[in-house]
Amino acid sequence: MQFSMKKMLVVVFLCAYVLAAYSRGNYLHGSGGATLYVFVALLMTLLFARAVWRKPVERVWLVLLTVFAIPVSLAFAYPALINPQCQYFIDQQATEHQARQELAALFADDPAFSNLGVSTVQVKGVNVMITGSVPTESDLERLMCRVQEECDCYEMCGILWEVKVDKERESLTTQ
Q1: Any transmembrane segments, and where (predicted)?
Q2: Could you give the CA distance from residue 114 to residue 53 in angstroms, rounded to a whole number?
Q3: Over the stretch 15-58, which tens digit does the pLDDT of each residue have?
Q4: Distance CA 171, CA 175 (A)
Q5: Greatest CA span in the chain, whole angstroms?
Q6: Cβ contacts of residue 24 below 8 Å, gap of 6+?
Q7: C-alpha distance from residue 112 to each of 20, 153, 165, 166 (Å)
Q8: Domains, the chain
C-alpha cells in the first residue's frame, strides 16, 4: 500500500483529533467523559480512514462525513452551546479540581499536615471534606487559618472539617 502525502496528512490530522477528544473529554467530564469522547473520535476516524483508503476516494462520502463530523465535534467540545445547564456542571468540575489541587499543595507544604486527605462531593455546590489528624491544637488552628487565607476554595466551596488532634503524638512531643 502506497502512502501519499494527502493520506499521511489525513492520518496525522485524525490522530490529533483523537488526542484532542481525549484531553477535552478529560477536562470537561473526567476519565469517563474522555473515554466516551475517544470512542466517538475513533469511530469518526475509522469512517474517514475507510473513505480515504477506498479506490477511488469517494468524495461524496468524505463530504458527508465532514458535514456530520463538524456539528458532532462542536457539540462535544462545547456542550454548553447545546444545553446551557452543562456549563454549571463544567464549572463545578473545575471548582472541585481547583480545590483538590490547592489543598494538596497546602498539605504537601507542611509536615504537620501529612496525615490529611481531601474528598469532594457535588450536591448543589461543591462540598470539600478535609479529614485526618494533626499533631497539636496549634497545628489545627494554623491549618484553618492557612486554608482561609491561601485557598480560593474557601470562598467557593462548603468546607467540612473532620480533623482530629492526635493526642498520642501531642503527648510524646511535650514529654
Answers
A1: 36-53, 60-81
A2: 56
A3: 888 888 888 877 777 777 788 888 888 887 777 777 777 767 66
A4: 6
A5: 86
A6: 37, 76, 77
A7: 40, 21, 11, 11
A8: 5-77 (no CATH), 88-174 (3.30.70)
Report helix angle 85-109 to 137-150, nearest 10.
140
Q: How many residues does the chain have?
A: 175
List the grid coordinates of 81: 452551546
Over the stretch 106-154, which tens digit does the pLDDT of each residue have? 899 888 888 898 888 877 778 888 999 999 889 999 999 998 888 888 8
Rounded distance between C-alpha atoms, residue 113 and residue 135, angstroms: 8
Phi-psi sector, 57: left (phi>0), alpha (psi -120 to 50), beta: beta
Looking at residue 169, what is its pLDDT? 52
Q: In what order do the strands lie in the sheet with 126-134?
A: 116-122, 126-134, 158-165
CA–CA distance from 87 to each of 6, 29, 81, 82 (Å)? 38, 11, 9, 10
- Looking only at the bridges linking them, the beta strands covering 116-122 and 126-134 are antiparallel
